[in-house]
Amino acid sequence: MAKADDGGQRQPLSRDRVLRAAVALADEAGLEAISMRKLSQTLGVVPMALYKHVANKEELLDGMIDVVVGEIEPAMGDSDWKAAVRRRILSARTVMLRHPWARRVMEAQAAPTPVILAYTDSVIRTFLAGGLSADLVHHVMHALGSRIFGFTQELHETAPTAPADLTPEQAAYMMAAFPGIAAVAMSRPHDPNSVVGSGCDDEFEFEFGIDLMLDGVERLQRKGWDSSDHDREDASVL
Amino acid sequence: MAKADDGGQRQPLSRDRVLRAAVALADEAGLEAISMRKLSQTLGVVPMALYKHVANKEELLDGMIDVVVGEIEPAMGDSDWKAAVRRRILSARTVMLRHPWARRVMEAQAAPTPVILAYTDSVIRTFLAGGLSADLVHHVMHALGSRIFGFTQELHETAPTAPADLTPEQAAYMMAAFPGIAAVAMSRPHDPNSVVGSGCDDEFEFEFGIDLMLDGVERLQRKGWDSSDHDREDASVL
DNA sequence: GACGATAGGTGTACGTCGTACACTTGTCAA
DNA sequence: TTGACAAGTGTACGACGTACACCTATCGTC
Q1: Coiled coil located at which positions (chains A, B) (predicted)?
Q2: pTM over 0.85, yes/no
Q3: Which residues of B touch A200 (CB under 8 A)?
Q4: I need a surface site. Which of A176, B103, B216, B230 has the fewest CB within 10 A?
């Protein structure tokens, strides 16, 4: 069995210990630090030792995601489906902010793990319990997409609208080359208290997005919308 | 200069030729086929030759994305902002369906290229020209996120709601373990004419998503919504 | 026509990666 | 005591990105 050189007893590896160490390493050193070799080092073990607990790197990454998804608050029996979903998603969001690498890993995943399916299932059941039709819920889940995991839909963390850290020359160039972006970037003084690097209040933007969707869904539900209603020749599907 | 062994004259490489070959290779062999070595092979050249035209692999990938984004239809002078944005996004979507690997590349990108900024800018200007306030446009762009590039927001191509290719045992297990998913998956017979692997009408789901957002935005605009209106203690931000 | 600069293609080499495979070693049931 | 089994080790291979030194064809200048 593995023992530390300094005489201390090293507890044996386990799948769980491997996954937790990997999550911790990714949290502090970023996703690019996750290699079987580097991870094994942090566990004081030889690279191949990991393969006794994890089939390959892909399974390692899947397991890391399961750990992260497991941190999302469980559903609570909530009378109002909108508030319930909203709280759940915002809880997911705080988890994903703790593990910023998780998004890229999930996006590269070939298929959802059972843990992910279970989370998705519980969100769906919240909608159904709120009285939404299965048909409507289907479309809503597609429309929400990865937002249910608390992911912003931005592609680039440093938003193109970020006016931060621009030299006057760069700013002038932006103004000339991308007048729309410039106009929008200048449009609002941001709340200095809850700001991320981009200079935007990310929390506000996120809530704006999910509220836009959830309010729209509520309106569809109220008017008894059904996907078979719509005329496929219409410009809009709603 | 490089010449083909068979006596035929080989036209010299160029950044453009490299990028186009890379896009073609990714289209037919997938993103994992994109390595400097394999790409150089398809160009009949030694790996290091590519570095005379592209600084490194990251720049190669950026360039590939620029090629793809360049395929999106330019904006047309459209009186109705909603229809204009809708058409533009749907055009982007058909481009991205041709290059399914583009999404992952863009998501891994550190920063937007000028080409991406130019496209983003033109979408913003469409909104502004339609009379939306810069403030509203700001939030809308965040809310739309990567949807403006025509990306579905799904994490996994094979949606968890896909009932296809399940053995009866698997189906029974799904029903028991994930009743919500099962209920939603069973809820609607899909249009067999425009179906992707998932068994869902992806085109419909995509349009449902953007229409949900654009309709919501139109409503906010009509009632003169302003981000400074809302009370930050409210449950909803709208 | 000669010639040096330069752009474009080559060859070799290094460090990193995931992981196959054969091995030792510690533990425990019989 | 044994011997099966789970856990950790060591070596090795092929793929990757790319640094660096090297050729070589082309062309403007004299």
Answers
A1: none
A2: yes
A3: 138, 142
A4: A176
